[in-house]
Amino acid sequence: MAETLDYSWPAKEKRRVIGKPLPRIDGYAKSSGRAKYAYDVHRPGMLYGALLTCPHAHARITSIDTSAAEKSPGVMAVDLMARPGEEIQYAGYEIASVAATTLEQARDAVRKIKVAYEVLPHLVDERDLAKAGSRAKASGEQVSGDPDQAFKEADVVSEGFYGIPVLTHCCMEAHGQVIEWKPDRFDYWPSTQNVSGVGGDLAKVLEIPATNVHTHMEAMGGGFGSKFSHDRIGETCARLSRKAGGRPVKLFLDRSTELEIAGNRPSFFARIKLAAKKDGMVTAWESESWATGGPGGANLPAGSLPYVFRGVPNKRMTHTSVSINAAPQRAWRAPNNPQLSYLTCAAMEDLAAKLNMDPVEFFHKNLEYAGAPGPDVFRAQLQKAAELAEWKKLWRPRGQSGPGPVKRGLGIGFNMWYGLGHASRALTRIHPDGSVEVEIGSQDLGTGTRTVIAMVAAETLGLPVSAIKVKIGENAYPPSGASGGSTTVGGVSASTRKSSMNALVKLFEVVSDALGAPPGELEAVGGKIQVKGNPSKSITWQAACKKLGTKTIQEMGENAQRGPGGLINGGAGGVQIADVSVDTETGLVKMNRMVAVQDCGLIINPKTAESQVYGAVMLSIAGALFEERIMDQITGRMLNPGFEFYKLPGIGDVGEIIVHLNVEPEHDKRGVIGLGEPPVVGGIAAIANAVANAIGVRVPVVPLTPDKVLKALEGRA
Amino acid sequence: MQAFEYARPSTVQEAVSLLGNSWEDANLLAGGTDLLSLMKDYIHTPKRLVSLKGIKELEGIRKSAGGLRIGALVTLEELLRNPDVRKEYPSLAAAARGVASPQMRNMGTVGGDLCQRPRCWYFRLGFGLLAKGPNGESLVPSGDNRYHAIFNNRGPAYFVSASSFGPPLVALGATVNLVSPSGTRELPVEKFFVAPATENARENVLAPNEILTEILVPPAAGVRNATYEVRQKMALDYPLATASVALRMRGNTVASARIVLGHVAPVPWRAQAAEKALTGKTLNAAAIEEAAKAAVQGATPLSMNGYKVQLASVAVKRALEEAAQART
Amino acid sequence: MKKKKPEPGVTRRGFIRGVGLGSGVAGAGILETEAAAAPAVQVVGPGPAQVTLKVNGKQHTLNLEPRVTLLDALRDHLNYTGAKKVCDRASCGACTVIVGGKAVYACNMLAIEAQGQDIQTVESLSSGNKYHPLITAFVENDAQQCGFCTPGFVMAAKAFLEQNPNPTYEEVKAGLGGNLCRCGTYIGLRNAVLQAAKQMKGAANG
User: Fold this and answer.
1) For the whole model, what pTM was predicted?
2) Which residues of A, range 645-684, sit inside 8 Å of C by Cβ?
3) Whether residues C28 and C93 fall in one domain
């Protein structure tokens, strides 16, 4: 019978839980400090670990002597993470670890490890491509159409240079874990985006059966794409535990190492040339770009420029990947998209300024070239965003924002993302006492995954959200994908919908006789099971479940990898408009407001969905105005591995944020689409364009700090 | 942190007796916001910490005919909330407010602010106060010096004084009392800060066995004073440049002026050309503009910090504008 | 080499005069010279010493090295894990607790320095199903995502509202500048603090 079930979402007007702005169900646990993160796990007899990292950007280890550390008070285990002869490619690389009775003792012991290095020449700064030498690897030209001819025939040509530096993930909870490695049992408390998979991956490296690994994670303090792997710190933590006779070991990166090695987003720099007709239609794109993501460099994914405006007919692109001696990149919320959006939207808005066109009109026209979700969606969003940003009232042509030292400006940025759902299995249990639980080997990164699961189950079973017990964060639960690519909400909402409906049908079968109707004629509404549309023929949920006797209903539901189907979808887009004020005497940029219009299909919880957009916008404000990884070419070190100089905005630094989520029927009917990624994409472009609009000149490289803003203003004068 | 002994004396004399002759022997602990970070990074590795928190005589703000006495242990928050400070010393209140974290203001002390170590990132990474590279030369001139000095920066020191209260206290002509086994010395705050010439020297004159006990600020009657800070963030963030001004007025005319820049030199930096430019002038827009220009005359920016010249000039202009509007 | 290891929990009295310095031997009074007619000042450490902390009204006696921070004492020795370790350098506020009525960064305060004062952690703001209005306001306004910075913000907000019971929106923005969030919960945070202020005032009036 299950295969004939119609799992589709209830019609919008019939939804009682889905679509309601409900507070997250783990909110009280988090705000009260009761939620236990991996960093909070405290086990009997637990040891504390500390790491020794390499201070050189490029070096060969000549010797390591751990003898003094081994004898240091309180030390229970020492583990070597690198060997003499090994060539180290970046500062912060882990060399050895120690476990001791107290954290202080572990750190004392680490300082007693003696490592000798042969220091090798390094490159840590990719901004000046000319200095990259053999570390720069150019890939071939990508050409489509006839760019040369298009530039010849152009009415207007605009050229510019744009850059966006390396950022770090900066998770508030550092990377790390607690591990207890007993002979037949391996307990693992990681901070991970990959509850179902990370334990098995680690087991493989440690050569132990995956069946021994028990992964536990109640809450996690931020990942943003950097926490898919167990990392080298996971391996060494395990070995420390084993060497210490199976005692639990807690090992987390300290903040400076976290910022140095635990994930970063590649830079992107480009010289871009655009051709257009007088009417504003872009006819050709030419770009020479370069980027780094650490020792492996960073490539330009084919066909990714121009961003969103993919249909520009004539294009030529070259790209150079620069390998540097800094820690490798990791996926960063919408990998590459914020950079590509910035390069594209900035170059296009500069062209609009050269054409003396209103950017709204200019982009509207060129959205003809837009890929998914398509010109119509983007155009409607642009119009809505312009309205919310009071564009007609506030916008002035570039550099004409009036007298006085403080200039106001508006700017536009676009985003797009793929979504769909990862592979996910859910298990719904209905117990004879009426209680319900949903088990999924998933994780809640703060996106509201737990709450979404509860809401979908509650909607499906006709129960209040409080009646659903959501169990996630254990690899003993049915496997569900890693949280990346905005695929979690699609995956878990589809699997939960299916498992809960499968379970409900079993309950219908049990009460079918009592209600005098076949299971297919029943529905679960308002804590009752009733004959469809006939509340007089009903039985309470409790009474129905009592009929199960001693038998618990237990049903699975599955979403196949990127599975199609009516429940979920992919391909979202959005438009953001920034409103800034720039003090042209100090170069300080102040956010007045950011408008974010976003499409994300059917919205399960508008409250947590909105929070995702707020957060994404704030990340783009941080990237546009404050944060960058600063590497020192002389010493090879990261100069700002702490929050004093790795600047993140505070509560007063982000202005106002207006979120508009598309909930119109044409969006709703597409099904659930993940929202984590897309709204983080366009903000940097919007803010940079707003600054250019305000001060009349492009500040080419973000973040737009006073030094750069004043320099750009000087160049204009 | 390296392990250390801890003592909590209740008098200054006891505290002094617990100190040593070198910085490695003992350090003074007040708010701890800077010291413990330095110790966690092994920049400071004292064998003993002497807590000042038990010493009552280091507390309190007292106003008298002789001016304002600020105990070294007065927290930034206490200073900010003090009615006399708010009314008569807006330049000090603004500096306290500029430390935009209530937690930092609750913990940090005025004495600790004056004694905090430079924020130079090479220093904080362990390359020493003078940021020496492998060949003994300073890393700063050819390295990333976006936050470094634009005055008094011909070496060997290139860092900027990080003190929030240094500039307003110098502008107000304040003095500090320093107590050591050999007695008490009182000296102008301006003389307290020095640019070190060697790696073992410090950015102030305090000896390892000496305690900064109190700050004495002359009466503010007839002195218009203001501080303006250029900071990137509204949240906790060190300023990029600041200016503190103290103007003794005769009617609308500036009888004498003290103009001091912060975060531009290894010490709070007297802008004497600006003081001169303003003295005897009517305090109007033209005079302010001229003083703001004069304040940055002779600046010698490094490769990446030319923008700070402009910021310092603007800070002077805006501090003077505030002072011009202040009523005394 | 070590001459003598101090016994845990035993504190010594060092009679100190002058500044004559030993060779920095751990365990023996480093600066200790001849006993003289100077006042006695207790010197403890570098080994563990008895530290008594009053946390949420309850006294706890621990043996801690003087170098143990209040944050590590709370988290690792007393299992109060609501305060988080993020920057460990007094720059992010995730470790915020209230000591002696004032919000502080527990990461840059020594546990031994917090003796004799009331230490309030986020754990004091809930009991069973009862929650402080601030916590409820945080939940209702979704002032949290990953939640790792959240308890620090709750405690900073509590101290802020004690000083500013009727804050304006602008005052909230200026008054919580000692905390950072990476997920971007600031909009919810501002609204939560304003809502809590209203509710707490209502409760006080009622």
Assistant:
1) 0.96
2) 648-652, 654, 656-657
3) no
- Distance separating alpha carbons of residues A161 and A699, to the nearest angstrom: 9
Residue B102 with chain C: CB contacts under 8 Å: 103, 156, 159-160, 175-178
For the domain covering A2-35+421-559, report its CATH number: 3.30.365.10
**What is residue A352's DSSP assignment?**
H
pLDDT score of B46: 98
- Cβ neighbours for B316, distance < 8 A, ≥ 6 positions apart: B228, B243, B245, B259, B261, B271, B274, B291, B292, B295, B296
Q: How many CB atoms lie within 10 A of CB B128?
A: 16
Q: What is the DSSP letter of A174?
A: P
Residue B21 covered by a domain:
yes
User: Which neighbouring-strand residues pair with A559?
Assistant: A424
Alpha helices in A3-162 (DSSP H): 27-31, 67-70, 103-110, 147-152
Provide the CATH number for the domain around residue C81: 3.10.20.30
Q: What average pLDDT does range C140-156 have in this prediction?
A: 98
Question: What pLDDT shows up at residue A190?
Answer: 98
Cα–Cα distance for residue pair A401/A394, rounded to 1 Å: 9
In whole angstroms, what is the distance from residue B129 CA to residue B140 CA?
11
Say if B136 falls within a structural domain: no
Best of A443, A488, A651, A654 to disrupt the C interface by mutation (most C CBs within 10 Å)? Answer: A651
Please tell me the total number of residues recorded for chain C in this structure: 206
In this complex, the residue of A31, A40, A103 whose CB is nearest that of residue C139 is A31
**Residue A126 CA: distances (Å) to CA of A135, A302, A635, C98:** 9, 21, 15, 45
Q: Please give the Cα distance from C91 to B41 (Å, whole number).
A: 15
User: Taking the mean position of all CA atoms in its chain, how far away is CA A612?
Assistant: 10
CB distance from B205 to chain C under 8 Å? no
Residue type present at position B48: R
> Is A2-35+421-559's fold the same as A336-418+569-716's?
yes
pLDDT mean over B298-316: 98
Q: Which two tokens stand for residue A359?
A: 């950017």
- Distance in angstroms (rounded) separating the CA atoms of residues A179 and A248: 5
Radius of gyration in angstroms for the set of CA atoms belonging to chain B, rounded to a whole number: 19
- Residues in A touching B34 (Cβ below 8 Å): none
Q: Quote the tokens at residue C36.
A: 């003289």
Residue count of chain B, please give it.
328
Residues 6+ away with beta carbon under 8 Å from A443: A192, A193, A194, A195, A217, A220, A449, A472, A473, A483
Which of the 8 DSSP states describes residue A441?
B
- The range of the structural domain enclosing residue B315 comes to 228-325
Band of residue C18 on the pLDDT scale cut at 50, 70, 90: very low
Q: Distance between CA atoms of C126 and A415, rounded to whole angstroms?
A: 41
Tally Cβ neighbours within 10 Å of residue B232: 21
Tens digit of each residue's pLDDT (9 = 90 or more) over A608-661: 999 999 999 999 999 999 999 999 999 999 999 999 999 999 999 999 999 999
Q: Are A332 and A226 spatial neighbours (Cβ–Cβ below 8 Å)?
A: yes
The pLDDT tens digits for B65-91 are 999 999 999 999 999 999 999 999 999
**Paired tokens of A440:** 């999924």
Provide the 8-state DSSP code for B140.
T
CATH of domain A336-418+569-716: 3.30.365.10
**How far apart, in whole angstroms, are the C-alpha atoms of residue B170 and residue B261?**
10
Q: ipTM of this model? A: 0.97
| Region class of C174: left (phi > 0), else alpha (psi between -120 and 50), else beta | alpha
In chain B, the number of structural domains is 2
Q: Which amino acid is at C189?
A: L
Cα torsion A501, A505, A508, A510 to 10°: value is -130
Residue with structure tokens 């676009």? A414
C160: alpha, beta or left, given left = phi > 0 and alpha = psi -120 to 50? alpha
Sequence-ordered list of residues with C-beta below 8 angstroms from that of B193, at least 6 positions apart, any chain: B161, B163, B166, B170, B203, B204, B266, B267, B268
